[in-house]
Amino acid sequence: MGIMNSVGSILYNDVSSDSFTVGVGFLKTTQSVFSEPPVIDNFTFPDLIVKNAQSALVSATIYDLNGINSAELYFHMGGSTDVIKLPMSNNGNGEYEVLIHDSLMGVQNFRARIVSVDNMGYSTTTEYRTPEIQFNNGELSMDHEYSYYPDGIQSGKWKLMSWPGQPVNTSLALSELNDGHVFYSWKPIKEEYFIPTTIETGRSYWFKHTYKEPVVFKEDSSSALPLENHVVQLKPGWNMIGSPFFFPVQFDKDSTVNDPITYGNLDKPGWSDGQLELNPWNGYAIYAADTSTMILTPFKESDSSAGRIAATSEWYLNLKIESETFFNYATEIGRRKHADNTLDIYDTPKFPDLNDRISLLTDLNGNGSYEYIRDIRDFNELNGVWNLRLDGHKDEKTILLSGDLRGSVPGELTMAIVDIQERKISYEFLEKEITISKDSELVYDLKLVAGDLDFVARMTQQILDNIPYAYSLGQNYPNPFNPITKMNYTLPKRSKVILSIYNVLGQEVITLLNKEQDYGYHTVTWDGTDHYGKQMASGVYFTRMTTKNFSQTKKMLLLK
């Protein structure tokens, strides 16, 4: 049997003569040699491309005993799933090259690799290479098609923004808002805002201006970074971050780090729910319980975003509130493996933003401190109650509440919202939003009950039973008294309460209470003194309790 190789030689199997014998072993050896794929060497690729209307040259040395059938440059532009195959020409002696036309080199940048196939069908693929591209003609502009702000940033509105790429000039002119615009950045360790003076890659900034026209940022000289994984260093606490890439990118992070949230949409300001990708020119806030990293991945060989939504031992309820002028989708409760029922790395405090018109906060399993937007508890428990407090600007009177449940949800899990002020229970809030009519001056209390049906039914009724049906001021005790007495009073909902003592002439002796209080049963004590701490004489006194829609007075006797 004869086999012709690529240079025209005949190989024979088991041919004998008086002079020599070629055996099977020799044939197997040569078959092994000719089954090797092409060798790609001297892959020459520009690390820096200066955008100047000229093409970029890519070359390599490619050889194979079987001969080369094809050599192509696989060109993959950032933000695209399409691969453009550019044929490489053979200039002799195994030297192959191709020109990347200037029109293909946009702000999204690109990566490329060589794929060569020999005449036996064996192939070799190089690693991807990616350049830095320097632009000097203002192409790196906010009005790009992938930009989060393609029409610029409107006047009079706070926005989170960042700079993709690496500007040559990183200076930010100092400015206050009355000068026309202002930038603010955030220090995670000190937990305070400051006015920055330089642009940092991967950092985001609050920005607001008072100019008549939208502001469109444009860099005369800037570089599109190589399309390699980019590491964002996260400090403990809230971090303000941005993407250095000019197209949406996904990311990888530790499960103890929250998904980033962003501010505002095309219609109104407000906080989003967790985001699964970062957009160019936009800014994001992300919370890390400890020092950590976030890896931005301009190309993902497989979509891992679904894995971040919820593993098999966790479920989450994203609570969303929205008014006519503002929204806040950042609140989240849930359960996951390894979480505690007290403060731990999975709980997230409220972000200290600059324009918080409405918020929905939780108090971490009943500790009374409404300072958290995320309260995650032990997955091994099913039943629980989350206390929620809705707060908002005085103009935000009608607010819609809805929920989005995801993850490994137990089949027996039931949920209900208890509206304390209205004494109502809603089991349908996941399917139909709840309308809340809020007193413009007060926060609004809610309770979310989750668990098996029996627990939810029993607990929601117990919560309602513990809410007083009416305002009331009880008679002081003891009465007569000397000099200390107590008064009980009830609040059917959170209210601003004023409780004062008057003499028989109607003169105020002392104000015992003047503040907002939660619904429920309360007690106040008077020690028989006035505003200055002076003991009052024996006689008749009056206690008056006043709220927005209620007033009641009780008579009492001080005897010494």
TrEMBL record:
Pfam families, alphabetized = FlgD_ig (PF13860)
Tell me the InterPro entries matching this sequence.
Answer: FlgD/Vpr_Ig-like (IPR025965), Secre_tail (IPR026444)
Domain FlgD/Vpr Ig-like: from-to ranges: 489-548
Protein name (database record) = FlgD/Vpr Ig-like domain-containing protein
